[in-house]
């Protein structure tokens, strides 16, 4: 186990370094002035001072070394070009809780509803509940979240006046963004759970349990759920990482003050430190979530652990 953890930790560091390096190089390879949005009307000497302050007058490799040194030694993600005096660390601390709250609600909603619909479809395979779930799955996978968001805004706010159109401040403001984000998750988990549960229901031990007189509830909770849910756990890692990446467009549509909306505005303003810092933050979240999923896999299905030991 120690060897496994050390190996994964090394791969984690290597992956993070590759992500940082590629993002750094790609941003600086793009044409344009990174201080154009803040220094357009400034005198030439003031612009020169800004370039010296942020180290933009130095060669690219030297800028990279300075950035990596600050990141490794002080966990310093730099200072925003567009918002002078504001560090990237402060931006992430302030904006990420909003995105995390919205993303977590959407994932929990998608996970619970998706698993429930998948089990219902497996139990009623070949009947109308099965067809309805598969239709919703196809709809959720093919229709983008921002299209659903626009439809929800039009019908549930403009027509029916049930929820606020934009903004953030309570449960009412969270309903439409969470539904828009969770629809794809519901479709994905529903489809995978239907396939996995259908396979489990055809196993011999399920027939044995039925022959012994095990109730449908007991069979579902003790046999079907435990064995059918294992493959769906694999998708949990990317879903956790999408707490932030998946909310980028939705936050812009609903004017939610989260890190996603901030990230999009910083891309248009070429705010390099914020783009780099947000990318590093999401990359670390993704890698850690995948590791947690591997551990959960062993806990839920001990056969994985036994296979590994053999």
Automatic annotation (TrEMBL):
Residues spanning the membrane: 9-30, 102-123, 135-156, 168-189, 240-263, 275-300
Annotated compartments: Cell membrane
Membrane topology label: Multi-pass membrane protein
Gene3D superfamilies: MetI-like
Domain ABC transmembrane type-1 span(s) in chain numbering: 96-297
PROSITE patterns in the cross-refs: ABC_TM1 (PS50928)
Keyword Membrane: yes
One Pfam family linked to the record: BPD_transp_1_N
InterPro entries: BPD_transp_1_N, MetI-like, MetI-like_sf
Family: Belongs to the binding-protein-dependent transport system permease family.
Name of the protein described by the UniProt record: Oligopeptide transport system permease protein OppB
The organism of origin for this protein: Clostridium oryzae
């Amino acid at each position: 186990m120690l060897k496994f953890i050390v190996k994964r930790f090394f791969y984690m560091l290597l992956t993070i370094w590759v992500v940082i390096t590629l993002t750094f190089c790609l941003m600086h390879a793009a044409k344009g002035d990174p201080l154009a949005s803040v220094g357009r009307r400034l005198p030439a000497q003031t612009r020169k001072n800004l370039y010296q302050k942020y180290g933009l007058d130095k060669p690219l490799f030297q800028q990279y070394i300075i950035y990596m040194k600050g990141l490794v030694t002080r966990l310093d993600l730099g200072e925003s070009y567009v918002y002078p005096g504001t560090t990237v660390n402060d931006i992430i601390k302030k904006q990420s809780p909003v995105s995390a709250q919205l993303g977590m609600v959407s994932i929990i909603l998608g996970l619970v509803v998706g698993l429930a619909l998948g089990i219902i479809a497996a139990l009623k395979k070949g009947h109308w509940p099965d067809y309805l779930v598969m239709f919703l799955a196809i709809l959720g996978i093919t229709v983008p979240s921002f299209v659903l968001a626009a439809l929800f805004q039009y019908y549930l706010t403009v027509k029916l006046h049930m929820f606020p159109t934009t903004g953030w401040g309570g449960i009412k403001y969270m309903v439409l963004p969470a539904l828009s984000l969770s629809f794809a998750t519901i479709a994905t988990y529903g489809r995978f759970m239907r396939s996995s549960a259908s396979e489990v229901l055809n196993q011999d031990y399920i027939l044995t349990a039925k022959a012994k007189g095990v109730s449908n509830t007991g069979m579902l909770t003790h046999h079907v759920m435990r064995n059918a849910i294992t493959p769906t756990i694999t998708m949990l890692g990317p879903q956790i990482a999408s707490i932030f990446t998946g909310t980028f467009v939705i936050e812009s549509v609903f004017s939610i003050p989260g890190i996603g909306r901030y990230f999009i505005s910083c891309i248009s303003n070429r705010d390099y430190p914020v783009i780099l810092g947000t990318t590093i933050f999401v990359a670390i979240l993704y890698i850690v979530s995948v590791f947690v999923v591997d551990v959960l896999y062993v806990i839920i299905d001990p056969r994985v652990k036994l296979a590994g030991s053999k």
